[in-house]
Queue: 4 jobs
Job 1
Amino acid sequence: MHLKVLALSGIDSTDLGQRVRLANVQLSRAELGRTFAGEAFDSFDGEHNLVSCDTYTSLWLSCSTFSDFKSILLPDGTGSVQGILTRDFFDSKYILKINNPTDIVFQDSRCDPFFEENFESNPLGLFEKEGWTNYAEAGSRFWEVFEDENSLGQSLEIGSFRSGDAASISWLISPKIDLQSLNNPRVAFRTSTSFADDSSLEALVSSDWDGQIQTIKSATWLPLLARIATEDDDAQIFVDSGDLNLNFYGNALYFAFKYVGSGKTAQDGTYELDDFRTFEK
């Protein structure tokens, strides 16, 4: 079979069913220490987040739980991966299927982002981490750490389902990130929904917030033109935000994710967030 060499960000439907090689990629830092297909949440296939070092967009890497190498640890580093490009059972996402550990050739050092949070080191339940702000402006719901096979480990979620709240406004705000050492700073993350209904999630950025909860509403929060999962996307399938240019926002920034909903059936959706990162492009 002919081998087609591609950039991860250049994949499209014309490549389906072909054997492809993706260059300058690595497995997400959250995948380190895991096996090819031997984790407790692996069912039929082990799936892992493969990330482009050029754009930080991602693709699912897959191998069978019946493979004889399922219990081998995933490799570290950066390099190339080859396999068959396909789609998942629900035709909702691209998957690169490999048949042998030798399909992965990582010979270079990692290209990790300038700042990254994948929520893997936090206990399940209420998200609490130094530097991060988890605040309910209205209602009773806070961002929480959860784990399932769709998130492939731990992610955050927020939702007002069965809250009984007349209104839900929940903020998740990053630590202040100093980007002045980066010439071309970018931010990226992944989101998914579970029946979003008429609830909403915004990605925002501020250069003038002072870090105090009481001044969140009075600070200047500018919208990021990010791709955020919507009701039209398949439930619990993570989508990439795109790599968002930060050159016009300032050198030291806070990033916020603002959820708005209520306990009403039409507004009680859930959103998931994972793999927040800032990087140089």
Note: The chain has a mean pLDDT of 92.
Job 2
Amino acid sequence: MTTTSSPATPPADSENQSRTIIFLTMSLDIGGTEKHLSLVAPRLRAYGWNPVIVCLWRRGPMAAAVEAAGVTVIGREVCGGSSRNWTADAPHIAMAWFRLAALIRRTRPQIVHVFLPVAYMLGAPLAIVFRVPVKVMSRRSLNLYQRGRSAVHRIESWLHRRMTAVIANSRKIARQLIEQEGCAPEQVGLIYNGTDLSAIADAQPHPAFMGTARLTMIVVANLIAYKGHADLIAALGEIADRLPQPWQLLCVGRDDGIGQALRDQASALGLKENIHFLGERSDVPQLLKAADFGILCSHQEGFSNALIEGLAAGLPMVVTDVGGNAEAVTHGETGLVVPPHQPQALADAILALASDPERRSRMGAAARASATQRFSIETCVEKYDRLYRGLLSGESAARIAGLDPAQ
């Protein structure tokens, strides 16, 4: 069953034109990009912007809260599962594309800001055709998804050259855009993700997993092969008898198809009672506060929201050296950085923190301070406001939010 939502759209007067930002994505489902938009868009209203989020696929469960915060969300309601079968939904996406064209033509926004590759390839051409003055694309992952898809690479490279700005959320992504995808250096800016520090600071430890005598580790990542859960379970199997007893690992995240294989792996290693698969949760801050340290062992990343949430909760983080992980975690100060795909290196880092409460406490305090200084949502939104104002004034993304050559 589907219904189409038709909330009010901004009138096409000159004041709204100059202050309207159309954010274009596929949905407001539960995910890193979606959470980022749900935090950024409402706060931009305080800077005088009129944000409108257009979802080409479906509105998603986060849409209601975003609308309650005063942001218009346009997209269809869908009853049922959340499987991203965009091919089957092609007729609905095509209809949404035509509605987006009508919206841009009617409201004549000054800024269109696109997130995620599918939305980029579908929506950015409309911003080009209708000559939207400022066209922004945000890249939030490395371009591994382009491998074996030469057409995707060519289309995106063609679009990049026609964007006013291309914004990365890690230095590795920014350099990749310039070195591999043909972006001009002056087009590329860097804005790190931000998180709501107050929501994490005010959270109380989850009572079900809190215990002064139990070592608690946490990984917040959907159960997808590239998130490295199998490496983590293998690492824990190597050191299970050397960890402080008792211990537990909280695995928080949606099962995207490998959950049973991971459970079987844990059982085979005798870790069934130690590892808790909690699924998708709305109480992540409370779970973070119940943990002694966090782990992110991905094989690939852009810049992880879960990572900065862990830092904000005062957790030292064990992370793999992919994407922006090593930009967020200073090795030896706010956590430990290890190579990806290496369970033994991961095991050594976990054991080092597990065996040294004083070191965990020192790193945790540094982690919280780093998150407060670098990754607050307020800092992030301020940078977006500065970006949009600068682009409308003719400045380049590099001048407004460029990479620091010294870093």
Note: Residues 1-12 have pLDDT under 50 and may be disordered.
Job 3
Amino acid sequence: MPDLPHPELADVTVAELRRRLDSGEVTARRLAEMHLERIAAMNTRGPALRAVIELNPDALEIAGQVEAASNGGGPLRGIPVLLKDNIDTGDRMLTTAGSLALTGAPAPADAALVARLRAAGAVILGKANLSEWANFRSTRSASGWSGRGRQCRNPHVLDRTPCGSSSGSAVAVAAGLAPLAVGTETDGSITCPSSVNGVVGIKPTVGLISQRGIIPISASQDSAGPHGRTVADAAALLGALTEQPEDYTRHCDPDGLRGARLGVLRKPYCGYSEHTDRLYEAALDAMRAAGAELVDPVALATTDEMRSSGTEQVVLEHEFKAGLDAYLAGRPGLAVRSLRELVEWNRQHADQEMPYFGQERFEAALATDGLAAEKYVSAAAKARELSRDKGIDAAMREHRLDALVAPTSAPAWVLDAINGDRVLGWSSQPSAMAGYPIISLPMGMVLGSLPVGLSIFGRAYSEAVLIRIAAGLEAVLPRRAAPMYRDRLELP
């Protein structure tokens, strides 16, 4: 791999960038230029990460304006940020969810969270690639693939998955294409990319960040959230995105594990990868040594039913149709105005949009009967009962826990556009169905090459508690490793 420009950008923290900007070592415009130079060398050339789907043509002008207007300001003033390409920007960039069907015109206005970022002085650098339609089109899609952006790649080992659906957001942060990125999650779409790319991701409580102006899947499960290289970086971005801005970095205590009472989840969140399990056991030992009180094991009584009942899928299919139809009705200039038209458009453009996998989830959603249907109403009530009342809330109350911990995922699998993802195991479903917060942070490397994450989750609106615990964990776990851009994993 030839030398890549500005390699320090793959490691530097937001706090350090803030110091350099404030001291005059670098200007906001130059910082944006450095990231754009790195993107130019790495996105479609060099390792060809395809993490960025579109650059903001006004990024340098915005950076100059931030500079000219700067008089103190918050922690994100002058900091470049990428947005997942399902988040509206009312500018010259498109918002497409990775689909060619939505390339007819830009969105008419900024999403609520984008307006907050602009007010905070962040420099919107561009849009990040994603699993098309946030991975809700097919039952056997390849994470990180979109018709518009093509295949995003894992910067640690290039033939491995970046996971999804916020693939480009996590890859860009890991590789130093941006210090921060905004992803979205319905179930695992922030945490899994965080895990396999070796960054920190936070999916907050549903409703903490406005979903206005974000292409939806599920009103009850969707949330935007930050990717950063450290817990403090992600916390800083989270505070700028929320409905009521808050300084979450004040909870980043390196001694945050001391006295924390944590429930250790095992079956079925372990046992699918001996590599992940080995790192998990080492992380648990580090927690104990740092003063955490572990209740080991803790079981969610409803785990099997959440996984086997299909309740979550019923909810997602109904909410997707209702939400997408409402969203598309407010997007003038597009080729499609409803899910029904989108399904037909994909059929007519199958050679571009469906060369590898189909749209089975779209077709299932199209067959639903609306949010007043008994099937949806009963499934939504059941989902809340399984995930909240008899799930997370019950376990935390019974064991008097501050949070639950589990491995985030298996190591990244080899990309396969034809057969799709090979998902061995994951831990995001309980918090996803509940609409509760979850954080994934790096817990180590498999064979020195593949990152794996640890997830922490808990009650609604417990972000401050989870951030404190995550910061304590970050202080005792192995330091995050910057990507090496290996073509493939060389096995011993």
Note: The chain has a mean pLDDT of 97.
Job 4
Amino acid sequence: MGEAEYGIDPGVVRNIALQVAEAKDDRTEIAIVVGGGNIFRGLAASARGMDRSTGDYMGMLATVMNGLAIQDALEQADCPTRVMSAIAMNEIAEPYIRRRAVRHLEKGRVVVMVAGTGNPYFTTDTAATLRAVEIHAQVILKATRVDGVYDADPEKHPGAQRYSRIGYTELLSNRLQALDATAVSLAMDNDMPIVVFDMTTPGNIARAVRGERIGTLISAEVSH
């Protein structure tokens, strides 16, 4: 949403697409799971009295709008793209079918996965982890506005310390809010590493894809 309070900033979308196109090469298969918080947040709506399931479904539809915006920007950057939705809407997106998604990736297309898991009560983090495990991804790259996992909220606590690496159980036991606990547990059960990094820094998506040490790596326990 850029500097606006909500919605889609075409300049920001174009910048993300150019970064993804830069990161994409013949050997790299990229799937994107997109959230919808810039348009609608189901949890926030339920706090104001809306039924949680209804709010979550509305949030899933918001992710579809974001996914179509990303697809348009990627294809303008000459990056072939397919949008796959967990909720059937055949006129604008393919249904998410795991084997078809893998085939698109093998053919060099970027796959944009929208509508979360198709179920309420699951976050975008959990949807991304589920899809990563399903397609046998090597790593989840959580692109956010913060440059990693901190021991406290860096926006509220200027002295907060950033982890360069942290284990799944340490993340869960310290109740660090970087990711949803369900997503972390699913990643831990399937030994799926996660890198949390700041996507607002130009070139960071390509750096993360190349495996450069940026942000925070969340993985199996590290021995101190």
Note: Residues 139-224 form a domain with the Carbamate kinase fold (CATH 3.40.1160.10).
